[in-house]
Amino acid sequence: MRHEVLLVLGVSLAASAIWSLLRLVERLTRGVPLAQQTAAMNVSRTPDRPWLDLAYQLTGILLALVPVLLALHLLNRRPGGAVRLIGLDPRTTDLLSGAGLAALIGLPGLGLYVAARYLGISVTIAPANLAAVWWAVPVLILAAAQNAILEEVVGVGYLLTRLRELGWRPAAAVATHALLRGSYHLYQGLGGFLGNAVMGAVFALFYLRFRRVMPLVVAHTLIDVVAFVGYGLFREEADAALASLLDWLPSR
After folding, report:
1. What is the per-residue DSSP string for 93-153?
2. How far apart are alpha carbons 169 and 177 in whole angstroms?
3. Consecutive H or E run containing 40
4. What is the pTM of this model?
């Protein structure tokens, strides 16, 4: 089972963590302050050929979900099926609890991002950089859902279930998940690591208490939809607001 966990993470979140660490090292050795660098997400691959760009975006989203299917397949060997085992079956209460979690994480997370930018330990995050095409918003919503499903099903539902079966204590499992979630966000800088590690700890504690991953998927999707779509529609206003806020803060 230990080998299984390592292999599943090795083709998904742990692989992202390794690439993210290398990306951080590359940023720190550029000779340019971290605060003056930008992490661009959801980037157009072929902006001059929108139909091909759409194919790239959809293919990336679908392939990123393969590790989710693998994790569910492996968990499905247990009685009752994987979906019910980790609480991925939808319930009406998941929307309310998911929205509450999104507010609990999203608002403080925004403040932490501003603080990290102010301290110079985070890059500027540009969440949406697709060309001005009709399918940009739907693709951004799908990308948000894909991130949520991958990270919560594999990183929380699958990982914490397997760690419990391996006899890990809850505190160790929560710490491991928080470290993993923070690690694959290192490309954003140390601020991204800390913020996502805190989010990981909160989500892991919620899962251990209620054994349901669907509210986490809802919360994560809502957070990313607001970030991706909001930035995509109001990029200039968001950048100006952040710049004004940083200028207002006292010089360090």
Report:
1. HHHHHHHHHHHHHHHHHHHHHHHHHHHT-BPEEE--B--S-TTHHHHHHHHHHHHHHIIII
2. 13
3. strand 38-40
4. 0.94
